[in-house]
Specification:
This protein has about 425 residues and is mainly alpha-helical. Helices cover about 60% and strands about 5% of the residues. The chain has 20 helices and six strands. A two-stranded antiparallel ribbon has the order 1-3. A two-stranded antiparallel ribbon has the order 2-6. A two-stranded antiparallel ribbon has the order 4-5. The radius of gyration is 21 Å and the shape is globular.
Length: about 425
């Protein structure tokens, strides 16, 4: 009996690869050419948020850890946010290009021609993670093509528009961690999720959802590995500049005069700089995410088949991850358009197995991506619109029970889920 050769990686990941190339092309053209002309600007239309992170990456590359959280970096996430940009900063330095902030004196910064394609490319890791999970779910190629297209549209906001590749990289590594967990690779999953947290701690919202599917005896080892990357990076930064590091990471300042206010803005602690502290609200969202995780835990034994992850189990887990990430948008005291992206990205994967769910979820997420860029002010109109859009996306993405957990064992083999060799290798 002949054994067919494995499908080449390029053929398996063709759709996210094409979406990445398209996204880089659109991102660069829109920022340097017709995008600026469209709004009547002579300077390039660049994502301002990226430049402070590039400065932080430059300081990290030169081992200036004490400067990570001092101006003009504006860094409030974990040091991994800067670490992922170190390679392109090294190239920019080698090319003799500066990192001066774009403005009237720097209308066409050459560094963008290197930083732009790089940050969009690493953001596209999320497209590859989505396609990998869709492949594991047995999603046919036409649906995976639509998933890549809808994912690229949503990804434009966080990469080309706002310049926050750390959000996309963190979500991508978190998704790869879930994929490893579904294949009973618990240690690998812990390191991937730990790396995701070290890059952008927003994924901590979804961590309780993952923890409830683990066997209790696995929790200590899993959490130890998952905490290690962030602890090491934060510890090094804090040792170099304790006050700046602790203030930035714990207060999580955001500016209501610049970004969108929400009904919770007045309740948030106000800082002397005119910003509000988002940290307390984010702690509350983690507590609520734990509640959602408990709901999933009660259903988990039904969703699995003989100790293995059924397609229904993986879909439902992804949906709860998206719902947990959505809590940030519901309770955040100050919102920015790119905050929506993690929810949309994960919800699209959860919806990918069924046209009746994927098509409406893709339409709503694409529409919401562009609607969220509006500059409407006031605590209710913009916030109410995006929360309603997120709710609609989650509604369409919600697994309807069509893929039964009691499917025959052959279905899990077809999905590429290797049965655990021993009981100790089971993830859940």
């Amino acid at each position: 009996m002949s054994v067919s050769a494995p499908t080449p990686w390029l053929a398996r990941r063709l759709f996210p690869l094409l979406a990445t190339v398209f996204l880089i092309a659109i991102g660069m053209v829109s920022t340097t050419w017709w995008g600026a002309d469209l709004v009547g600007r002579h300077s390039w239309l660049l994502p301002d948020d990226l430049w402070g992170t590039l400065v932080a990456a430059s300081r990290l590359a030169h081992l200036n850890l004490s400067g990570l959280y001092t101006q003009p970096t504006g860094l409030v996430a974990f040091p991994g946010t800067a670490l992922i940009l170190v390679p392109v900063v090294a190239v920019i330095d080698g090319a003799g290009l500066g990192l001066a902030t774009p403005g009237a004196e720097n209308t066409h910064p050459g560094a963008w021609l290197l930083a732009g394609p790089y940050e969009i490319a690493i953001s596209a890791m999320a497209l590859f993670a989505a396609d990998s999970i869709a492949e594991r779910l047995g999603v046919p190629r036409p649906k995976r093509a639509l998933l890549a297209a809808a994912g690229a549209v949503a990804l434009w906001s966080v990469s080309g528009r706002w310049g926050h590749p750390e959000d996309a990289v963190a979500v991508a590594m978190f998704l790869f961690g879930i994929l490893a967990l579904s294949d009973a690779r618990v240690e690998r999953s812990a390191w991937l999720i730990g790396a995701a947290v070290a890059v952008q701690p927003l994924v901590l919202l979804a961590l309780p959802v993952v923890l409830v599917v683990l066997e209790p005896r696995r929790l200590v080892g899993f959490l130890t590995r998952a905490a290690a990357p962030a602890v090491l990076l934060l510890g090094a930064a804090a040792a170099a500049n304790w006050n700046a590091t602790v203030n930035a990471v714990t207060s999580q300042p955001n500016w209501p005069t610049v970004d969108h206010t929400t009904p919770w803005t007045s309740l948030a602690p106000h800082l002397s700089s005119g910003a509000v502290a988002a940290g307390p609200a984010r702690m509350l969202t983690i507590l609520l995410a734990c509640g959602g995780a408990l709901v999933l835990r009660r259903r988990w034994h039904v969703l699995r088949y003989r100790g293995e992850w059924s397609p229904a189990a993986l879909e439902e887990l992804l949906w709860w991850v998206a719902a947990a990430l959505a809590l940030r948008c519901v309770l955040e005291p100050v919102m920015v358009a790119y905050y929506l992206w993690p929810v949309l990205a994960v919800a699209l994967i959860a919806a990918s197995s069924n046209w009746s769910r994927l098509v409406p979820a893709g339409v709503v997420s694409s529409t919401l991506t562009f609607v969220a860029q509006a500059s409407w002010r006031g605590p209710w109109i913009w916030w109410g619109s995006v929360v309603a859009g997120l709710g609609l996306t989650l509604f369409f993405a919600l697994p309807r029970g069509g893929r039964r957990a009691s499917a025959p064992p052959e279905s899990t083999v077809a999905l590429g889920v290797a049965p655990p060799r021993t009981q100790t290798r089971q993830a859940g």
